[in-house]
Design a protein that fits this description.
The complex is a heterodimer of chains A (276) and B (524).
Chain A: H1 2-10, H2 12-34, H3 66-102, H4 104-118, H5 122-133, H6 137-164, H7 167-174, H8 179-215, H9 227-234, H10 243-269
Helix pairs in contact in A: 1-10, 2-3, 2-10, 3-4, 3-6, 3-8, 3-10, 4-6, 5-6, 6-8, 8-9, 8-10, 9-10
Chain B: E1 5-16, E2 19-31, E3 36-40, H1 47-55, E4 62-71, E5 74-75, H2 81-87, E6 92-95, H3 99-102, H4 109-121, H5 125-138, H6 144-148, H7 157-170, E7 175-179, H8 187-204, E8 207-212, H9 215-221, E9 224-229, E10 232-238, H10 239-242, H11 249-257, E11 274-283, E12 299-307, E13 311-315, H12 322-329, E14 335-341, E15 344-346, H13 354-359, E16 360-363, H14 367-370, H15 377-387, H16 395-401, H17 418-430, E17 436-440, H18 448-465, E18 468-473, H19 476-482, E19 485-490, E20 493-499, H20 510-518
Parallel strand pairs in B: 3-8, 3-9, 6-7, 7-8, 13-18, 13-19, 16-17, 17-18
Antiparallel strand pairs in B: 1-2, 1-4, 4-5, 9-10, 11-12, 11-14, 14-15, 19-20
Helix pairs in contact in B: 4-5, 4-7, 5-7, 7-8, 11-18, 15-17, 17-18
The chains are: A mainly alpha (276), B alpha/beta (524).
């Protein structure tokens, strides 16, 4: 694994993604300490201040410092997006592997159910769930996880099907291993590598989906400085003060790009054939 | 007479992150017009590197240090990429090991055959189609008009290989490279392909380089044989003499490794009671659905029994149901019929308890897929040990039994060679202290010399533990060396079950006789 990490750093996209992610993690940890102002401090005289010495990224419609809001807001955006992806991946991976292991009619039943769920667009499904569970960041994360799980299950199942036919799985069945051992000890470790790659790419989707839900008013609630919410609130002043919307949009974009690059880098670095 | 192909003093390195690796070291050989040169060596000896050097299709990290390769008067190393396009396929034909991957699955056979003819012989499409039919007829394919319109998945492996051969001969090349063309085929099909090769060669007088790891096979079809080891040519001799008088020690090792039915390796006769009896085993994959009827059963009413300490050979072509028997006996496939372990009847997979699964172990064909790549050797062996009443302290002893150092417990499967992986798989089977080990083509994916050492190991383990083997193979010569009795399967049915001595006798099924005839015994 350390060897794979070293190889990841050697690729340009891998190194860039790690650099961006370290920056992101630092902001998540130290954001409030770094913020020059209180992100919720309203200053009517400073409304719509353009970027300058006082406010590096300008101030918004209530005179709040955009940079401070961005730094503090990372906390309520990135960890929840990660959580949503992890939950969705975990659920989907286990469903997909179990489905491939059981095979036959069980497999049919599980996969057709998943097809039915996938027929509903992810955003719509997330909207439906949030409106049932109630607004809020955590519920939005759960909704995103549920929206992701079916796709992950399909990806995992296709990999798990080939793993299922490997002789070491047959050997485990022949010596009388139970389903739990075969799924979790023999199959899952061999399914994980492609899933990890898929996961990192999905984090980017989760960040954007999470921002979208907040933008629609279903995720984080004002006055939180969640990035998607910031974009949502700023859109009315797009012509008047574009910096209010540009800063959080760029932050969302960079986060998405960082995880996408990580996925690309991992695909090359995790190829088990070269793991010598 | 000028040679068709001459390689002189050719040296090739591969540059890897671990340093440079010498693939070919000062290799010189020549093939005269109409001559077949056999090139023999283990995997990794550089045979394939030589082929790719001749075809001018080397990977990027290859460094050619010195030497020359001439096709007739053409210096291949100096040939431009454009010139090479006119040489590959036109002047050098090639037949690969696995016909199922050397044909494009999305194009019809006719399209692939005619493309070469249009390109290299300047035929019009219609003329090429006619010529293609003619070529298929010459490789003894029935109904060539119909075959031309088929896709690769619609024909058998043997038919595919004939199409590849037809394509290679189609442009009347000066030289054809054969890279283990019968290895991926079953015995009888392979024997027929060899007959075809001999006939076409006599008709066309083409020169050929025939590559194989099986010295026995090469000695029967080549005029001269060159033996390669670690990138060097260690011996070159006439095919008729190399078996009788191998000069080099490596050649002798290869000669010794070739299975010969007359050289028995097992001398005792098992007299114990029946260990495992199978009655009327029928295996059926897939069931009838709304849209399609059930496929035909993989095996029908197969009955056989294995005595304690006995080696029972099961032979037959691919698809004859050999592996399905193994799958039924190990509970990997649902079956109808009855099994008895000693006195205990087993009616189905559900009744195979821990005692049964411990007594009957299986080793699979492909060393690459039979070990979990995410588990170290120690974990792979530790699990069955714990399940069947041993403990992890026995791992070094197990490894020693299969002649691997105890330090291998910390290794990952990808750090082992094919033969070493198969030894670990054998150790895993013996961790359960089994009474019967089912060996499903366990040496088919290995070199002949590695195969010999694995067989040696199995016999040593049997001598120590008194284990019985159900040895599934397509190699009749090999099984005649070790088995007490041989079961012959064809299309899911048992056609013969007889003592190994009776194999040459009168009361043998015609199919068994055909199998014996198709298994080449080495000359000399």
């Amino acid at each position: 694994m350390t060897e794979a990490f070293r190889r990841l750093l050697r690729t340009p996209q891998g190194a860039l993604s790690i650099a961006l992610l370290i920056l992101l993690a630092a902001v998540c940890v130290a954001g409030p300490a770094l913020a020059p102002y209180d992100p919720e401090q309203i200053d009517f005289l400073g409304r719509f201040s353009p970027p300058g010495a006082l406010h590096w990224l300008g101030a918004d419609q209530l005179g709040r410092d955009v940079l401070s809001r961005l730094l503090v807001g990372a906390r309520s955006t990135v960890p929840l997006a990660l959580l949503a992806t992890l939950l969705g991946t975990l659920g989907g991976t286990v469903i997909g592997t179990v489905s491939a292991y059981l095979g036959g009619r069980w497999d049919e039943a599980i996969m057709r159910t998943i097809d039915a769920v996938m027929a509903v667009p992810g955003l719509l499904l997330a909207l439906l769930l949030v409106s049932t569970l109630g607004n809020g960041s955590f519920n939005a994360a759960i909704a995103i996880a549920v929206a992701f799980a079916p796709g992950m299950a399909r990806v995992t199942r296709s990999v798990a099907l080939t793993v299922r036919n490997q002789d070491y799985v047959k050997a485990a069945i022949a010596r009388g291993e139970g389903g739990g051992w075969i799924v979790f000890r023999e199959m899952l470790p061999n399914v994980v590598a492609p899933v990890v790659i898929e996961t990192t790419i999905r984090v980017a989707f989760a960040v954007m989906l999470f921002a979208t839900l907040s933008f629609l008013g279903l995720g984080a609630q004002p006055p939180a400085s969640e990035w998607g919410l910031m974009v949502s609130e700023a859109r009315r002043y797009l012509h008047q003060a574009p910096w209010i919307i540009i800063a959080p949009s760029v932050a969302i974009g960079l986060t998405a790009i960082a995880f996408n690059l990580l996925g690309d880098g991992l695909r090359d670095a995790l190829n088990p054939r070269d793991e010598r | 007479m000028n040679p068709v192909l001459s390689v002189s003093g050719y040296t090739l390195d591969y540059v890897t992150s671990g340093g440079t690796h010498r693939a070919l070291d000062d290799v010189s050989l020549a093939i005269a017009p109409g001559e077949v040169l056999g090139l023999v060596g283990e995997s990794g000896s550089g045979k394939s590197s030589l082929v790719w050097s001749i075809m001018r299709h080397l990977p990027r990290n290859a460094r050619e240090l010195q030497g020359a390769i001439h096709l007739g008067d053409t210096d291949l190393r100096r040939a431009t990429p454009k010139a090479l396009l006119g040489i590959r396929g036109r002047r050098i034909g090639m037949v690969f090991q696995d016909p199922s991957t050397s044909l494009n699955p999305t194009l019809t056979l006719g399209r692939q055959l005619t493309e070469v003819l249009v390109r290299h012989r300047g035929f019009s499409k219609a003329a090429a189609w006619q010529e293609g039919i003619e070529l298929l007829r010459r490789v003894e394919l029935h109904q060539p008009e119909v075959l031309m319109r088929r896709y690769p998945h619609e024909v058998s492996g043997g038919e595919k290989q004939r199409v590849v051969i037809a394509t290679a001969f189609g442009c009347r090349p000066e030289l054809i490279l054969f890279d283990e063309p019968t290895t991926a085929l079953d015995v009888i099909t392979g024997a027929r392909i060899l007959d075809l090769f001999r006939r076409l060669r006599a008709e066309t007088g083409v020169a050929a380089l025939y590559i194989s790891h099986d010295l026995g096979l090469v000695s029967r079809i080549a005029d001269r044989v060159a033996v390669m080891r670690r990138g060097k040519l260690v011996e070159e001799a006439a095919a008729s003499t190399i078996f009788r008088a191998p000069a080099h020690e490596d050649t002798r090792r290869l000669v010794d490794a070739v299975p010969r039915p007359e050289r028995r390796l097992v001398f005792d006769e098992p007299s114990g009671p029946v260990l495992l009896g199978a009655r009327d085993i029928a295996v059926q994959y897939g069931r009838k659905t709304l849209f399609r009827p059930a496929p035909p059963p993989a095996t029908r009413n197969v009955s056989l029994d294995v005595r304690e300490g006995e080696i029972l050979g099961v032979v037959g072509e691919s698809g004859s149901g050999k592996s399905s028997i193994a799958r039924a006996l190990t509970g990997l496939a649902e079956f109808r019929g009855g099994i008895r372990l000693g006195k205990r009847p087993i009616a189905g997979v559900a009744q195979m308890d821990a005692a049964y699964r411990r007594a009957v172990q299986i080793v699979f064909q492909h060393p690459d897929t039979s070990l979990n790549p995410r588990q170290r050797v120690g974990e792979i062996l530790g699990r069955p040990l714990r399940m069947f009443g041993g403990d992890a302290r026995e791992i070094p002893r197990l490894l020693e039994q299969v002649r691997l150092p105890a330090s291998y417990a910390g290794r990952w499967p990808h750090q082992l060679s094919g033969g070493e992986k198969q030894r670990v798989a054998i150790a895993r089977a013996f961790a359960a202290k089994p009474a019967l080990v089912i060996c499903d083509e366990i040496t088919a994916a290995l070199d002949v010399s590695v195969q010999a050492s694995i067989i040696d190991l199995l016999l040593a383990l049997r001598a120590e533990h008194g284990t019985a083997y159900l040895f599934i193979t397509h190699d009749l010569n090999l099984i005649r060396q070790i088995a007490h009795r041989i079961a012959v399967m064809r299309r899911g049915e048992l056609v013969d079950l007889l003592a190994v001595d009776a194999l040459q006798g009168e009361s043998v099924h015609p199919y068994t006789r055909e199998l014996i005839a198709a298994s080449p015994t080495p000359v000399g």
